[in-house]
Amino acid sequence: MKKIILILLVSCFYISMVSCTPEEVADSTQSATCCGNEGDLPPPPPPPPGG
């Protein structure tokens, strides 16, 4: 039982250390700035006449 708890603790520690690296944080800020944060979007084109 102690080995299972130790393995779980080590696994959680490893995942917490690897899951959030500075490179991933920098990449996520770049993707956020390129996808909709540039300013106002132009309005859509008008619908075609007729219908």
Low-confidence stretches: none
Largest sheet: none
Query: Helix count, per DSSP?
Result: 2
- Helical amount among residues, as a percent range? 55-70%
Query: Radius of gyration over alpha carbons?
Result: 24 Å
Cα-to-Cα separation, first versus last residue: 72 Å
Number of strands: 0
The averaged pLDDT comes out at 74
Strand content: under 5%
SSE succession: HH
Structural class: mainly alpha
Outline: rod-shaped
Biased composition (Pro residues): 41-51
Keywords: Signal
Signal peptide: 1-20
Region (Disordered): 30-51
Word description of this protein:
This protein is mainly alpha-helical and 51 residues long. The protein is 61% helix and 0% strand. It has two helices and no strands. The chain is rod-shaped and about 75 Å long. 0% of the residues are buried. The model has no long low-confidence stretch (mean pLDDT 74).
